[in-house]
Write a structure and sequence with these properties.
The chain is mainly α. It is 71% helix and 0% strand. It starts with a helix and ends in a 22-residue tail after the last helix.
Length: 193
């Protein structure tokens, strides 16, 4: 597993760079949303249509890009949604086991399934250069292509996480033979009454 650690660093750098880059699109999305709201009300006031479907669809596209291309970075940063009620109470070894099996049994199959089932639709959209049916709308095929990119990046990040988890397992093998880790969390930590 240690031989694969340079590959994990490359994957981590790629997903960190993409994640940080697309996070700036959040600001652009907010500005476009504010513009849409202001011109909609201003247009009503002056009796002119100042908005366009392009701006509405662009805001939707930017949200999709941030969500889809930020998913692998979120996994890398361990900022994804999980049920911490149980997970936080487990030993480091227990958390690592859940992460390993969750990656193998859930992340990998889900990523492959979504990629495989999306492929025909995305290729069809690309082949016909699908466009929005709304007047003045944007092309749809580029945003559909982002779906495939998302799940490739997510799968790669899963490989990186799995290699890291398995190499950690080798580093502290036997470290918790006594039935628990030195870093076991306090079972009452984080609970409020």
């Amino acid at each position: 597993m240690r031989d694969l650690l340079p590959l994990t660093k490359l994957i981590d750098r790629l997903n960190s760079w993409i994640g940080r880059a697309v996070s700036w699109l959040t600001l652009v999305m907010i500005l476009i949303g504010a513009y849409n709201a202001v011109v909609r009300y201003l247009g009503r006031y002056i009796g002119a249509n100042l908005s366009s479907n392009i701006y509405l669809e662009l805001q939707w596209y930017l949200f999709s890009i941030v969500f889809l291309l930020g998913a692998a970075w979120t996994l890398k940063e361990d900022a994804h949604v999980r049920v911490d009620v149980l997970y936080a109470r487990l030993s480091r070894r227990g958390r690592r086991r859940i992460d390993i099996w969750g990656t193998i049994l859930l992340l990998f199959p889900f990523s492959v399934f979504v990629f495989w089932t999306s492929w025909p639709s995305v290729m069809n959209s690309l082949g016909i250069r699908e466009s929005s049916p709304d007047p003045g709308g944007l092309p749809r095929y580029p945003i559909k292509l982002v779906i495939l990119i998302c799940f490739v990046l997510l799968f790669l990040q899963g490989i990186s996480e799995l290699v890291r988890l398995l190499s950690e397992r080798g580093e502290d093998a036997g470290g918790d033979a006594g039935g628990g880790d030195a870093d076991d969390p306090d079972p009452t930590q984080g609970l409020t009454v």
